[in-house]
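Structure in, sequence out. Go:
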């Protein structure tokens, strides 16, 4: 019998729904909330309101694209956390309403685990065990995936996330939010002529607040001498920032790979869309004989396909949510989710 799962993702500023059916993503529709651009970051109150407006049309579009009726859905997978509490509550409230109306069960999904599992949506995919570098706007983590049920968190950021560093530095450069894709595009037009410190912590943790501060002080100094410094050097500044963040990520990843002697690597989350990071990792893969896997672009940034996909593993094990489950603003990857 064919199984269909409706995925719902509203943890931050992207409203997304998807239909998963027997290992295939039939549709994955994401509404990006443009309203945050002018604030230079996500405005939580607006995010919740925009999610609320999006729910019904988004579900219609998602089901239409999958040529699927709501009555054909077997379960509803929804992001439980981590994320903005108001945003999570909209998706969860909608999922609970659908569940009550249709009688279909809910599967709760950890957003971070869904990012990790997103490298398994399509072929080719890494073999277990593999190391996953998750790099998004809210999180930067190195996870050892022993199996679907056993994820081991090896390291994470102690301050800003990699995407947050792109976005905050982009704001200093006058770029719109989210700045990551803009920096990626502009960096292609110049060489990285400026040097910023490459922070490397002991263990497998990351720290990105230092690079942000050093760019800030550097710009202040340069702008005092030439008020047009940024516009004259924007492309090279982008290339330099991108180079610095990429090196921090790649160096820690290499340390983990060497320590654990694992040659299967996945890279997930919004920043995994970055073209320089992808190219750099391809070179590392050749040098160190690794297989590196990236999700399709539409599964890199926040999306419901990864939620429905992660939910399918729980579905097959019969793990469904209690009716009174709550949103979890903080919801770490639980080490060794061995069931
Ligand atoms: O995974 P995601 O959509 O949301 C979170 O869970 O946070 O990641 C969003 C982040 C933003 O910080 C954005 O600037 C960054 O991913 N991003 C990129 C690129 N595309 C998205 N950063 C660098 N280069 C890109 N091409
Ligand atoms: Zn995310």
């Amino acid at each position: 019998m064919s199984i269909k799962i409706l995925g719902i993702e509203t943890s931050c500023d992207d409203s997304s729904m998807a239909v998963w059916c027997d290992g295939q993503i039939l549709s994955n529709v994401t509404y990006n909330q443009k309203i945050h651009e002018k604030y230079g970051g996500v405005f939580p109150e607006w995010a919740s309101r925009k999610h609320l407006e999006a729910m019904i049309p988004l579900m219609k579009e998602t089901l239409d694209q999958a040529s699927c009726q709501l009555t054909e859905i077997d379960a509803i997978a929804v992001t439980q956390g981590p994320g903005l509490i108001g945003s999570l509550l909209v998706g969860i409230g909608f999922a609970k309403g659908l569940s009550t109306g249709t009688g279909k069960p809910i599967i709760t999904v950890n957003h971070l685990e869904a990012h990790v599992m997103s490298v398994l949506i399509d072929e080719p995919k890494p073999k277990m065990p593999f190391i996953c570098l998750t790099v998004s706007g809210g999180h930067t983590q190195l996870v050892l995936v022993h199996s679907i049920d056993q994820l081991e968190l090896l390291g994470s950021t102690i301050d800003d996330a990699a995407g947050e560093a792109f976005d905050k530095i982009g704001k200093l450069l006058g770029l719109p939010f989210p700045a990551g894709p803009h920096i990626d595009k502009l960096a292609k037009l110049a060489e990285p002529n400026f040097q910023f410190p490459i922070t490397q912590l002991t263990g497998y943790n990351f720290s990105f607040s230092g690079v942000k501060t050093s760019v800030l002080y550097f710009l202040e100094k340069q702008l005092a001498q030439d008020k047009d410094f940024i516009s004259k050097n924007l492309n090279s500044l982008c290339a330099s920032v991108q180079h610095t963040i990429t090196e921090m990520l790649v160096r820690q990843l290499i340390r983990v790979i060497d320590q654990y002697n694992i040659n299967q690597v996945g890279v997930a989350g919004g920043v995994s869309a970055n073209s320089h990071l992808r190219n750099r990792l391809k070179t590392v893969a050749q040098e160190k004989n690794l297989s590196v896997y990236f999700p399709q672009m539409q599964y890199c940034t926040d999306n419901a396909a990864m939620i429905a996909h992660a939910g399918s593993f729980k579905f097959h094990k019969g793990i469904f949510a209690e009716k009174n489950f709550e949103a979890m603003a903080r919801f770490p990857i639980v080490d060794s989710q061995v069931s």
